[in-house]
Amino acid sequence: MASVYKRGDIYWANFSTADGSQNAVSTKIRISVYGPRKARQLALEQAIKWERNEVDKRVKGIDFASLVDSISTLDPSDKTKLALVLVDHLPDSYQTNGDTLTSTITYSDCRDKWLSKVSSRKSDDWIKREIVCHKFFIEFVGGDTLISSVTTEHVDDFIVSREGLGKAANTINNYLKPVSQLFNYAVANDLVTKNPVKYAQKPGTATVVEWDYIPDDAFDIVINNASDSDKIFWTWLRYTALNPKDVSALTPASIEADNKGNGRHINGKRAKNGRLARIPVHPNIEKAISTYGDDCFGIYPTKGARDKSNKRFKAALAGQGIYSVIAAIRHTCATNLLESGLSLDDVALIMGHSDTTMLKKIYVKHVDQVKAYEAVKRLK
Fold first, then answer.
1. Domains plus CATH for the chain?
2. Which of 249, 258, 335, 365 could form a disulfide with 262 if both were Cys (CB 3.0 to 4.6 A apart)?
3. pLDDT digits (tens, 9 = 90+) for 264-291
4. How many CB atoms lie within 10 A of CB 331?
5. What residues pair up with 10 in beta bridges, in sequence order?
6. Which residue, among 274, 275, 250, 245, has the nearest Cα to 264 in the 3D structure?
């Protein structure tokens, strides 16, 4: 531990170095200038700072092999937590498309090159459609993202996000047309190894009719191993069916007592359509508010922070053998509400839908089968 001592009119510092030895250095802080008490305080602060710098050198000097060896001694729970932390530190440049990173050109730069080649042969209407349709995917993946890092998983996630906004299959396919054309150009010019749109699960096909469902036991494990911030964020999503952006916008004033004495509910307008939420507050949310207080509100206010939370959620789910995205939380909540017996109209209000059309098409297939079975049994 760092300490100080006097040599004449000057305080000297004694502290541990990176190699574990002790070092004595003059702080050049004079007692005659600052007085005995102030001089000792300043000298001790300097000694602590020097020792902290030495500790940082020692920590940063850990070699990769030693780090890997130390990971092997962790229990499974700590390994899961470490994996979630490492997701945030993975450089974008190390994402790959295929077996190798084939290009360092960004998505937007590649699109500019492609348009410069083809626009002279295209009509004004084609160019307008390209701009209108392509912008949604660019906003989703980020124009500064390396084109070689865009994978089929990104395309699948984009499709899910558009379906979550109620977009029709044909509309989503139109959004993806210029994306596919751009990747065909990139493949032809050896910028990427494959067109990820070609291998994506297109909207309207059989295997994407129903949303991913997250079982409660897997959800419990994921949340229990999360950081406090993720735990709060994911709990809001789990029990409200709100979009992530709407959760970030919640404030203490968003929670009101129910006028019929049935507990409390969320009262606020959604970012997307302005409809009132009016969602009952689940006991687990009340427990989180009691534990964390105001830290439960305004969480992850930026899109970047929410995207990082989504990455951690995907990684944690993958550890449970489930491959999905944070949007699945909303749809899991809707499914659970319907299977608990809540009416289509009531669930539509909680989800922020204007009618029950999407609920009938996507969420209630299993419930409808149960009702149909009971109806058939009643036939004479």
1. 3-60 (no CATH), 95-208 (1.10.150.130), 216-377 (1.10.443.10)
2. 258
3. 888 877 666 666 667 888 999 999 999 9
4. 22
5. 7, 30
6. 250
